[in-house]
Design goal:
heterodimer, A: mainly alpha, 3 domains, B: alpha+beta, Alpha-Beta Plaits, two-stranded antiparallel ribbon, 5 helices, 6 strands
Chain lengths: 423, 123
């Protein structure tokens, strides 16, 4: 490696390998480093040091055969040094040393995967609900506070502060790194799945994955859902969640036309959907249903599947869709579900029936700034001929929309409506 | 780790109970204390007297200011506590949820400060 070009290549290779390991193993290494001490922040610091060391060492000496084990060894050493330095007491250092022995005893490349325990710790009910998803993104995937803050529309300083507070609580309050017992598992797992789904929902609002600050959160969410489905293959809802995300992801690019304009589901060309992804989702949903444990995510996945089926076959299946929404309302009632159900009801029973179904939610404060509610109302009112009210609802829907393309779509609809009435 | 399980409840509740209900309540707490002892996790426990017997003390200009009554006048008051030693928060939450106080009031679970945590902040 004497030529400048060779050095450059070695650098590039080291970077590429480090990045690949970071992507694949970050959470695995944090979990191993933090699980005894519960000190997530120290584990992250040690791991950051180890990655820096790797970028200095690997270009010169070549990438190690087992980069993951190399990083673990260095990070562990840093963590022990750090613990001594901070005078946390010999106890923590000893625990890390014990952990070191355990890991050294194992075959190279066979580091135990404790990410599931880490996921359960990050979504523990003793942590405030709003910080669980950001915490998971940082601790399990290694996203930085700035990226997470921008995805959750929060200042980086405020986000960092809340992340630090959550990590402190994990350490000081003794939140365990383990998979909950059978009887507690369903509820705790629901919190994990909820947090993963929130990542996807955030990513979904960036339709083309082009917002670099958001760094394709949808992809990160799919990675987590895939991981959960691998680690808990017998939990119907983990399979349901992955199926739901794959259905949505398969249609993601079709939400924009060549000019970048918003395309509603009814106008999308099924030929632009990702068929292998839809097939994989179908298979997951079938596997999930075999467990006979229906849940929110399986129902939502079934709804996606029904929409896809209708668009492909052009056979209306709104009765089936309303039924699925009824089931969803029964187990996971929310104004959001009610809005979506009303839209399906409009197709089955007409817009008046849909408006009547939304009547009980008119004063629900959760809907006051929920954009899809106002977009739905605008559409339904326009169809019943209540133009003035519809125009008002469009104004709110347009004002609340974050996505410029979707905003333009609504503006065109509003313009068409007002032109129709005045002309 | 040691956790303090604090029982917060409405004080008027006890007086409004019938004798039979009170006996039942006492028996429930006795059984709970017994199960903590059997599990080997109980460090200490006490029931507290009514807050009408509480006195608040603080120094004002270096002199103790003594006032009648509890610190906070919220409806739920600290009625008693259990100090337990268990491996982690999940175990503490499991014990807190079994306490009769979780049914007639609410439980606050607080980890006890340990020396090593102290060192972390002073370094």
């Amino acid at each position: 490696m004497s030529s400048a070009g060779g050095e450059h290549d070695a650098d590039a290779t080291a970077h590429a390998v480090a990045e690949a390991v970071a992507r694949r193993s970050y959470g695995k290494l944090v979990a191993l480093l933090a699980m005894r001490t519960r000190n997530v922040a120290a584990a992250e610091d040690a791991l950051a040091d180890a990655f820096a060391a790797a970028l200095a060492d690997w270009p010169a000496r070549g990438c190690p055969a087992n980069p993951e084990a190399w990083l673990m060894t260095v990070a562990r050493r840093r963590a022990i040094d750090g613990a001594r330095h901070r005078r946390v007491g010999d106890e923590v250092a000893n625990q890390l040393a014990i952990l070191a022995d355990e890991i050294d005893d194992r075959e190279a490349g066979a580091l135990p995967d404790q990410r599931l325990a880490l996921l359960f710790a990050c979504t523990h009910p003793a942590l405030e609900p709003a910080i669980r998803t950001p915490l998971m993104l940082q601790v399990v995937l290694g996203l930085d506070a700035k990226t997470i803050a921008s995805a959750f529309l929060m200042s980086p300083a405020a986000m960092s502060k809340r992340l630090v507070r959550a990590k402190n609580k994990i350490r000081e309050a003794g939140i365990p790194f383990n998979v909950p017992e059978r009887e507690e598992l369903p509820e705790r797992l629901a919190a994990v799945l909820e947090a993963v789904y929130a990542v996807y929902a955030e990513g979904w609002t960036d339709p083309l994955g082009s917002d670099t600050e958001r760094r394709d959160l949808a992809g990160e969410a799919l990675f987590l859902a895939q991981l959960l489905a691998e680690l808990l293959p017998d939990e119907a809802e983990t399979l349901g969640l992955l199926a739901l995300m794959l259905y949505a992801q398969a249609r993601r690019a079709a939400r924009r036309d060549a000019a970048g304009e918003y395309v509603p589901l009814s106008a999308q060309d099924p030929a632009h959907w990702n068929t292998p992804m839809i097939d994989a989702a179908d298979a997951l949903l079938r596997r999930a249903s075999a467990f006979n444990a229906i849940g929110r995510f399986q129902l939502e996945a079934a709804l996606q599947s029904a929409h896809i089926h209708r668009c492909r076959t052009h056979r209306p299946n709104w009765a089936e869709i309303v039924q699925l929404y009824d089931a969803l309302l029964a187990i996971a009632a929310s104004p959001v579900v009610a809005v979506n159900r009303a839209l399906a009801l409009a197709e089955r029973d007409g817009p008046q029936a849909a408006l009547a179904a939304l009547e009980p939610y008119a004063d629900d404060p959760r809907l006051a700034d929920y954009q899809p509610y106002w977009a739905a109302r605008a559409d339904l009112l326009a169809r019943t001929g209540a133009t003035a009210e519809a125009l008002g609802a469009y104004d709110l829907a347009i004002g609340l929309e974050r996505d410029p393309a979707a905003r333009r779509f609504l503006q065109r609809r509003r313009m068409a409506l007002s032109a129709r009435t005045s002309g | 780790m040691q956790y303090l399980l604090m029982i917060y409840s409405e004080e008027s509740g006890w007086n409004q109970m019938t004798d039979a209900q009170r006996q039942q309540g006492v028996a429930a707490y006795q059984a709970y204390t017994e199960s903590l002892t059997k599990a080997g996790v109980l460090v200490g426990a006490n029931r507290l007297q009514h807050t009408s017997n509480a006195t608040t003390v603080r120094l004002v200009d270096g002199k103790p200011q003594v006032l009648d009554g509890p610190f906070s006048d919220s409806k739920e008051q600290l009625a008693g506590y259990y100090l337990i030693d268990v491996p982690n928060l999940d175990a503490a939450i499991a014990w807190a949820s079994r306490c009769p106080g979780a049914a007639h009031g609410l439980m606050e679970v607080r980890p006890v400060w340990v020396a090593s945590a102290d060192a972390r902040y002073t370094s």
